[in-house]
Design a protein that fits this description.
Elements (H helix, E strand, L loop, with lengths): L1 H52 L11 H30 L6 H4 L5 H22 L6 H22 L2 H11 L2 H18 L1 H20 L5 E4 L4 E4 L3 E3 L7 H17 L12 H25 L3 H30 L19 H19 L11 H11 L13 H20 L11 H4 L3 H34 L15 H13 L5 H18 L2 H22 L6
Antiparallel strand pairs: 1-2, 2-3
Length: about 550
Amino acid sequence: MGRGSGHVTTKHRVKARRGRGKKRAPRYTLNLRLRLLILALLLGSEVLIASLAFDGDQLPGDPSGLLWLLRNAGAWALRWVLGAAVFFVSFALLKQQTIPAPCLGRLFRPGWLLAHLVSLTVFVTLASSIYAGQSSSNLVIAAWAVSSLAVAVTAGCTALPPAAWREWFHRTGSLWIYSVIGSGLACWAGSMVRSLWEPVTATTFALVKLLLSFAANQLVVQPEHMRLGTTNFTVIISPECSGIEGMGLFLIFSVFWLFLFRDELRFPHALALVPVGIVALYLLNALRIAALVLIGDAGWKDIAVRGFHSQAGWIAFNGVAILVLIGARRITWLRAVAEPAGAVAEFPAAPYLIPFLAVLAAGILSNAMTAHFEWLYSLRLPAAAIALWLFRHRYQSVNWRFGWLGVVAGVAVFAIWITIDRLMPPATIAAGMPPELAGASLAVQLAWLAARVAGAVIAVPVVEELAFRGFGLRRLIAEDFESVPWHSSTVAALSLSSIAFGVLHGGLWMAGILAGFLYGVVMLRRGRLGESIGAHATTNALLAVYVLLTGRWDLW
């Protein structure tokens, strides 16, 4: 009896150990990604501050030695290093090449953190001397370069111990070499592309002229100035508008993506994606310029210059990139292994992210068609409604109810929001209703205000809470986020999802972070997403009332 009991106990222990190992695997991956995110935020903030504090134009106009190299190649060297790091980390994670948990060790080892602070101090001291013109010797510049490398290395070892980096490089094989080469090629292409600007600009000019000849009369054509348009509205096609930069960016990305995912694609068939994407981007760029002229010629000059011009280019790039990637996964002719007949690929995050992305897309479209006042804000409502309706059967696990706790949290967030706004430095703000809306009829005013309030109080809270709390917070806990209970979380998951939510709110990012934190807390407290949606809706409703009563339309 005793021996049998002992045998059963040992068996259960073995099963328990195995079970724990299986459950922890996603957490190890998440742990690595969290560390990389913290590292990116640390180095990104330091690079941003250094870029603002030390401008290459401050260096002597006719330098020599290493100072000449710093002035002429320093910025490109930084782009090269950052690009290589982004290539390596992005594609290593996409290929599911992670690090075993035993290699990760503790986060923020005191020794490496102290070394990072020391190297950062040396870097700032030497940079201040060099950029202020107080020292230009090769020895000082070399010491500064070494200190900059030390800053990066010690930051990396603060987040991940050297053993983890060695293991990751070993597991990814030659990926780091390809990343360095790819980033170098991208930088080289960026510096050399200027020589192609003139002929490509001329070709773009001719193509836009051809497109306009079908849609407009009395064209104004001045090829010597690259000016083109109609008698009412003309544009100058500068080299930056030729489309070559977007084509080059797509080329670099597509080549690396095709190489790293070559096992999933059928070659040489998949290579057709590269010229298709490049040609599509080039044609869309010419179409964008032609549409810009036609919009301005129709009398909407402000919309053409302000909204459409700034939004249409990157909308086209993102659209082409997304369509190409979808095509690579959906078109059997491009795939190495065909999916079984009748198989439907599921994306668990789609019901949580697509409504949010749909509202963002509607906002982009609205802004692209806007001059000074966003008349088409209401596009967000049908975008959210359609996306939510498409996934209505996937929300069975979502509890939409909310109670007094959500309302109290919403009031608290509103108070925090207004307090932080009042503590910020005063800015020149035009009080009262925007002139465009004030000049409209009462019916138009009421219709626009109704759509604006409905969007802020109904659509936005639902789609943002689905994305940031329903998906983001739980995804930071486990890869299989749908298995995470609504009341479960970690400090890191709650904090990072709140930071992401705060960044979305621009200048009031601090208020956004606190709001995201409180929304997450009430969801976890009640174990239902409806509580955070109710809190969010309460905040936005109070903000709407505040805006209408005080005329602080900038808060909208």
